[in-house]
Amino acid sequence: MELDVAGHPTHSRAFTVELAQRDDGRLDLRASILDLRKRGFVPVAGDLQGPGIVHHMQLAGVVDPAVPRIDTIVAAQPNVAFEPSAVTGGESCRDPIRRIEALAGVALDDDFARRVGGEIGGNRGCSHLLTLAQLTGATVVWALAHDPASGPRRPGERRFRRDVVIDGHEPNAGRLQLAVQLTDLHFAPAPAVATPMTRFGAERTLRLRADVALGTFQIDAATGAERYREAGTLDAAWTSRDAALARVAGLNLARGATAELLRRFDAPGDDRPLLDALLMLAPTIIQCMAANSEPFAAWYQHDPSLVAMGGMTDSCYMWRRDGVLQRHLGPSDPKPRR
């Protein structure tokens, strides 16, 4: 199944979640999110942000698969939107990074997403780490429940990797196409020296495209297909997922998308990977909008603003209601919402 997209490339967002065996029976967890802006420049917080890598966030931890539970977790932010500066009053996206460590000992159950939001959601942390942590929790649960392999694993041997890549394209003014590719790769137990396909356990691939009207941020239509392969079924055919994707028609990606998706897929079952991919659309479209920056420079040249392009109030630590950036807002800048 080939994704048919058109238009100018605007932004790519990529997630990776990986599990590897430890010698104590637990699993090492590694996860990352990478935002690659593909065009334009954005005037924001007294500076100019160009294309290239705009966010790079990482999680590392240890998972107890028997519970399952996150035993330890830490974060790193190699690339952030806001480094300390005079405009930020020395504040940086990295300031609240250790809040993620409060998730140590938290069970990976139905309450995990709420616990993550309570610790690092809103103005308590980083919206990108929040998105990554929520995807990571769901991914680990799915991976543990659907591992097709059996037998002991060597310390350091990989067990699972999920990659979700979302590409935004602008086919014409006011339209956006989001191309999503999710790949789940299960690794089979293998000796330290082995041929590549000896390590192959199974692969699930999901590809979908969502057509979005930027005036309303609604999904007009979505299409996609899925394929599952094991060692004996590498020639497996693609299966259409259009019937399930019909449930996202009319979904507003600007507000309440997560709650609405959870309502529409209230018992996802085998559709959990599809739901996980769809939950990444709303956070990604915000990044695509920043790349849709052609008119920004002209706007702010005639309407000077120190903050210029701003974030939603209380969406993260840097855009918190009582933060330095909010105090720099000019008369014509968006005001905090009560």
Walkthrough of the structure:
This protein has helices spanning 112-120, 127-145, 242-245, 257-264, 272-278, 281-291, 296-302, 324-327; strands at 8-21, 27-37, 42-44, 47-49, 52-64, 69-79, 158-170, 175-187, 200-213, 218-230, 239-240. It has 338 residues and is an alpha+beta fold. It has a 9-stranded antiparallel beta sheet with strand order 6-5-2-1-7-8-9-10-11. It has a two-stranded antiparallel sheet with strand order 3-4. Helix 1 (112-120) runs antiparallel to helix 2 (127-145). The longest helix is centred in the middle third of the chain and has 19 residues, at 127-145. 35% of the residues are buried.
Summed up, what is this model?
The protein has helices spanning 112-120, 127-145, 242-245, 257-264, 272-278, 281-291, 296-302, 324-327; strands at 8-21, 27-37, 42-44, 47-49, 52-64, 69-79, 158-170, 175-187, 200-213, 218-230, 239-240.
How are the elements arranged and paired?
Elements: E1 8-21, E2 27-37, E3 42-44, E4 47-49, E5 52-64, E6 69-79, H1 112-120, H2 127-145, E7 158-170, E8 175-187, E9 200-213, E10 218-230, E11 239-240, H3 242-245, H4 257-264, H5 272-278, H6 281-291, H7 296-302, H8 324-327
Antiparallel strand pairs: 1-2, 1-7, 2-5, 3-4, 5-6, 7-8, 8-9, 9-10, 10-11
